[in-house]
RNA sequence: GGGGCGGUAGCUCAGCUGGUUAGAGCAGCGGACUCAUAAUCCGCCGGUCACGGGUUCGAACCCCGUCCGCCCUACCA
């Protein structure tokens, strides 16, 4: 059960130069559902998201567009990234930008401490640098170029030439933490989830870690290295620190102690930064490592991974404009086992929308509310004598409440939804079996009719509470149609079946109307 | 080269440390019902569990090998 303890959960901060696609929205939605669920269970919850705004790529794009990098970042944050949160209905508690003083100042504070404590040294680095990747590439990462770059070695990811750079760099002695990291993975098997992601990380660290170059002097769009302002901090080193600068690191010890450590939800492509580099940085600074790092899978479109660099992404609005934000949230979290890759297709989305949301849940709500209006004049009925069938519904309400909460505690979002859906299906079956419309034809069956409708009504309310994190809009509409008091998101989800019934139902517009033509 | 993950009904996927006739959802087919968003409920159809060996009383699950897909990592150059 929830005990009011701290639950701090983060998304990665997104690189503002990218265009938001459904992969970004997927990460946001998954994290938001975990946060909403914990919040609704009474945990001291905090959800953080934000944007990563430094680095050479942004500087170059801004210059090409004739504006300062700060102006460029401002523009993208307001035109693309904040709207994304609205599009998929994210209830984040904070939004951090790496260009904010609260971040930059404390990145410097963190770095200075590592420097003072001997974790940083001066070195020389030479290598092939890919501007697109913001990192030096190994030879193996290079492939022969084609087309206009024929004859040159190009980055395998961006298919653009790399640059041979040599610079004085400051290095973080990450190699010194190899053993401590392995011990961490050993002692806390769930530190990296899922299992497949953990295996990758462990085998990587077992090969031994190199020290990490953490500064750049070839451009200046970044956080200044405090003891050498001719260098700026490497963008990843800078970015990772958002997780602590956003909750008071260095300035508000009370807040920091209350929130940290966090659960990090990330795409598996950036797992290593979060499961290796980041804990090593924290160890060096004498801070707690995260509670856990969960690497979710990729969305596959036509069997291929969506790529942020190659713009094969689908915009979230394409989906929400037709199906709504609730459907977006439901679809990606129920259809994909959280942690695995998942296939997206319009056909599958449409099929699941109609089968599960429209015909399953939406229609269930509609038939129950309508019958109470028609047979009870809208007045919420109460139970008389309970049959086994009635008791089975009540028992199931508790079962799925417990099962879904347990699943959420394992980050098994899809399992939580599947558990709740057992109640949706059971209630549809219950109505078919009990046939309240038949009972209504004979006044002698009045008590039984009211009992059946009361049981169904109660189950529907439990669904509203349980589905609130996933379908916040629909759940709120349903809650109000049920005539229940307060806001649905304020109802304790870990005991959803104990909600307080209302006295009168109100008309309910279709929660998930059928959608006839899909592009 | 080393390593990881995966290859299960038309589609998307479950199948924990091996144990009776391999499961679900969707799609398809048939029936019941009418409160409801032409919705719901029931039943049926449907698989040589990538392939070849092996271990075992018994393997989708363990071992060896092969093929295919994706990913991580190295190196020769």
UniProtKB/TrEMBL annotation:
EC number: 6.1.1.10
GO biological process: methionyl-tRNA aminoacylation
Motif ('HIGH' region): 14-24
Residues involved in Zn(2+) binding: 130, 133, 155, 158
Motif segment ('KMSKS' region): 305-309
Methionyl/Leucyl tRNA synthetase domain ranges (all copies): 7-368
Gene3D superfamilies reported for this sequence: 2.170.220.10, HUPs, Isoleucyl-tRNA Synthetase, Domain 1
Names of required cofactors: Zn(2+)
Enzyme class: ligase
Reactions catalysed: tRNA(Met) + L-methionine + ATP = L-methionyl-tRNA(Met) + AMP + diphosphate
Oligomer and partners: Monomer.
Function summary: Is required not only for elongation of protein synthesis but also for the initiation of all mRNA translation through initiator tRNA(fMet) aminoacylation.
UniProt name for this protein: Methionine--tRNA ligase
């Amino acid at each position: 059960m929830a005990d009011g303890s701290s639950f701090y959960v983060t998304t990665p901060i997104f690189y503002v130069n990218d265009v938001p696609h459904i992969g970004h929205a997927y990460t946001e939605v998954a994290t938001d559902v975990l946060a909403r669920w914990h919040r609704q269970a009474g945990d001291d919850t905090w959800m953080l998201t934000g944007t990563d705004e430094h680095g050479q790529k942004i500087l170059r794009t801004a210059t090409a567009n004739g504006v300062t990098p700060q102006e460029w970042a401002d523009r993208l944050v307001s035109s693309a990234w904040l709207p994304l949160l609205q599009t998929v209905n994210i209830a984040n508690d904070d939004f951090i930008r790496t260009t904010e003083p609260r971040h930059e100042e404390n990145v410097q504070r963190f770095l200075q401490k590592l420097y003072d404590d001997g974790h940083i040294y001066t070195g020389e680095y030479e290598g092939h640098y890919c501007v697109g990747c913001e990192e030096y590439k190994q030879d193996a990462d290079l492939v022969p170029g084609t087309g206009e770059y024929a004859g040159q070695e190009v980055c395998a990811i961006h298919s653009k030439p790399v640059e041979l750079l040599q610079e004085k760099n400051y290095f973080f002695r990450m190699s010194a933490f190899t053993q401590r990291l392995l011990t961490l993975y050993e002692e806390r098997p769930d530190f990296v989830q899922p299992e497949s992601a953990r295996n990758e990380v462990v085998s990587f660290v077992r090969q031994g870690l190199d020290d990490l170059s953490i500064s750049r002097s070839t451009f200046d769009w970044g956080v200044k290295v405090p003891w050498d302002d001719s260098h700026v901090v490497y963008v990843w080193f800078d970015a990772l620190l958002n997780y602590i600068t956003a909750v008071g690191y260095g300035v508000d010890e009370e807040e920091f102690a209350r929130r940290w450590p966090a659960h990090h939800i990330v795409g598996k492509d950036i797992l290593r930064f979060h499961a290796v580099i980041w804990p090593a940085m924290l160890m060096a600074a004498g801070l707690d490592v995260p509670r856990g790092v969960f690497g979710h899978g990729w969305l596959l479109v036509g069997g291929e991974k969506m790529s942020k660099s190659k713009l094969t992404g689908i915009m979230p609005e394409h989906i929400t404009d037709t199906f709504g934000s609730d459907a977006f949230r439901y679809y990606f979290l129920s259809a994909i086992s959280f942690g695995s890759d998942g296939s997206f297709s319009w056909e599958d989305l449409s099929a699941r929308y109609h089968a599960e949301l429209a015909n399953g849940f939406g229609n269930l709500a509609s038939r129950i509310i309508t019958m109470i209006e028609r047979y009870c004049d809208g007045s919420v009925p109460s139970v008389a004598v309970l049959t086994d069938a009635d008791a089975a519904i009540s028992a199931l309400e508790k079962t799925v409440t417990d099962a879904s909460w347990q699943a959420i505690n394992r980050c098994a979002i899809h399992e939580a939804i599947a558990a709740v859906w057992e109640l949706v299906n059971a209630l549809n079956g219950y109505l078919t079996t009990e046939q309240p419309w038949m009972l209504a034809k004979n006044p002698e069956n009045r008590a039984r009719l009211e009992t059946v409708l009361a049981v169904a009504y109660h189950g529907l309310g439990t669904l509203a509470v349980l589905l609130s994190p996933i379908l916040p809009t629909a759940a709120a509409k349903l809650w109000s149609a049920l005539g229940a008091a307060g806001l649905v998101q304020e109802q304790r989800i870990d005991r959803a079946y104990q909600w307080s019934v209302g006295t009168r139902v109100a008309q309910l517009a279709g929660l998930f109307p059928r959608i006839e033509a899909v592009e």
